[in-house]
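Q: What residues go here?
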């Protein structure tokens, strides 16, 4: 039987530009390649667990924008349950512009957007899934008090936490 895993966490659309070197302040450099792709620590954990055969439920927030739609489509394509994902009309989906030098060094700026609106009430709405889980996975791309609330819910139901 597949392990039941609930991930309470983040989704960010990665916007990756590859370049010879980082620009200095005030300078513009040319990128060689630009790629978009689903990311965010929570989403990456959920996808990895699903690909390893776990029964995964994701609890999170994305915007009502194209990146939010892509997040949900990505999870559904991976077989991840999305009934506790909220498309938030007030906040944009998180984005992570990533700049990668030819040397492999990178710089990332994460604009967390809707991730920061994930609340204790959202976790409470998913408590039945948490109670039925073998493992709850959290990370710190959502508010710390939401993480703490999710951990408390898992503890209440004897669920292992990561």
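A:
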């Amino acid at each position: 039987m597949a392990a039941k895993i609930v991930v309470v966490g983040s989704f960010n659309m990665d916007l990756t530009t590859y370049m010879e070197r980082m620009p200095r302040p005030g300078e513009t450099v040319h990128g060689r390649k630009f790629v978009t792709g689903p990311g965010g620590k929570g989403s990456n954990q959920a996808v990895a667990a699903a690909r390893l055969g776990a029964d995964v439920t994701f609890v999170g927030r994305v915007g009502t924008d194209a990146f939010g739609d892509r997040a949900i489509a990505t999870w559904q394509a991976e077989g991840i349950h999305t009934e506790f994902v909220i498309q938030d009309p007030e906040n944009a989906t998180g984005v992570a512009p990533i700049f990668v030098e030819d040397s492999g060094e990178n710089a990332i700026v994460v604009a967390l957007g809707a991730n920061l609106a994930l609340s204790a009430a959202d976790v409470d709405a998913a408590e039945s899934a948490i109670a039925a889980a073998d493992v709850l996975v959290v990370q710190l791309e959502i508010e710390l008090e939401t993480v703490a609330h999710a951990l408390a819910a898992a503890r209440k139901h004897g669920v292992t936490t990561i």
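A: Context that may help when evaluating the design: The longest strand covers residues 31-39. The chain has a mean pLDDT of 98.
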